[in-house]
């Protein structure tokens, strides 16, 4: 019984420590909370292959799974410390303090740390948790024996007192701790949830100006109506999100600043959000793809972006591409959360519609997709181009600086590979014999899709019907009316881009520069 209650004491102490830390982080900032800080540190130190596995298996829930895993490990450690405290109260309480030190160190070590105040949530939580464990373990320890009565008999014990320990005191203290920690945690959640109100208000106040260069009208036939096919425009709520931020940054547009400086920049500049809105804005349909997208995967999306042409801004600051003698070949974009992405200067300034985007599908950027400003560069995977919550642009060289993902063995340069995907029928579908519409999307941003072909089993490649092209920077929908016969079949798709390159059948992993291969699905025709 005492062992079980000791374990319970440890869990209560750990939960109280986290609840207090949550409450204090609402005063400091949500990113300073121990679970978020430790989670961020774990992401930074996780091998690229493991991250890729997590994205492949958990998708956009990978961050939730990580945080639940951290909580599970903390619960096990707290249980062990509670049992240890039954015999060694100081060691048990000291163990809680050590976890606080680890959380504080993780918070201080984050790239976006605000300084010593980031250590306060973990420190405060650990002190309260350690004190609670020390107190609860004391209630479970041996009690001083009561003196015998004058007649030599022992006094009767209260029915609520166990032999050798204070059951009543433990129950009262544990119950009070549970209620108090639940209240503190709930209050911290509410306060953290309401943090960033100024940022939310600043986004609500944004009125996007009409673009000086509007997106060209989509040609008739761009949007297919085939059931099950991915829509041409991805709604904001469905647009994929792959990043390392456990807490989505909420940046106040009124205080946001963007600094542009570095090698070859003759006129450094610091811009406000209003400065960008006063510039000529352009509007373009652009498909983005994540390098973690497996063959046939979901991490690609198409949106209508509005923003400032990045090449024009760079030119105004005196930047020249390497082909024109410029000394910098890498543009390092830094996010408010410390992320760094490296983009080839030549690609940004070669005439493509590289943007500092402020709007997405007719509204200001959602917070999850980079409000107030993010980068969008057609034809490059997101990890080398699509910096969200951007606050700094530095011109440098690839030899001089390795960005976040390059340090983790991803390639420095990563143009999007030619890919195609079967959206319908789904894998293991059981369509009826007859005409079955096979359909999906294909992409080769900044090159364009020229042809899509479908193969049934080991038969010949047959050309699919392409929907009209939005632009060479967007994906294209395709369809193929298959005369399906009964039995099991494998459907495979391949695309050919505008350069004549055919999608390869050689399968590669996403690391180091994106997956390759051909998507196929197995169906049974009834």
Structure description:
This protein is of the alpha+beta class and 526 residues long. It is built from eleven helices and 18 strands. The strands form four sheets. The chain has a five-stranded mixed sheet. Strand 5 and strand 6 form a beta hairpin. Helix 1 packs across helix 4, helix 4 packs antiparallel against helix 5 and helix 6 packs antiparallel against helix 7. It is globular.
Features:
526 residues, 5-stranded antiparallel beta sheet, 18 strands, globular
Record the SSE blueprint.
Elements (H helix, E strand, L loop, with lengths): L1 H27 L5 H12 L2 H11 L3 H24 L3 H20 L11 H21 L26 H28 L2 H8 L52 E6 L6 E4 H6 L2 E9 L10 E10 H7 L13 E6 L4 E5 H4 L6 E6 L2 E2 L9 E3 L13 E7 L22 E6 L9 E10 L5 E8 L5 E2 L1 E2 L9 E9 L2 E11 L22 E6 L1
Parallel strand pairs: 1-10
Antiparallel strand pairs: 1-2, 3-4, 4-7, 5-6, 5-10, 7-8, 7-9, 11-12, 12-16, 13-14, 13-17, 15-16, 17-18
Helix pairs in contact: 1-4, 1-6, 1-7, 2-4, 2-5, 4-5, 5-6, 6-7
Number of helices: 11
Q: Regarding quaternary structure, how should these chains be classified? A: single chain
Strand order of the largest sheet: 2-1-10-5-6
Average predicted local confidence, pLDDT: 92
Largest sheet composition: 5 strands, mixed
Secondary-structure element series? HHHHHHHHEEHEEHEEHEEEEEEEEEEEE
Principal-axes geometry comes out as globular
Structural class: alpha+beta
Instruction: Calculate Rg over CA atoms.
Output: 29 Å
Unreliable runs, pLDDT <50, ≥5 residues? 143-148, 154-163
Q: Assess the beta-strand content as a share of residues.
A: 15-25%
Fraction of residues in helix: 25-40%
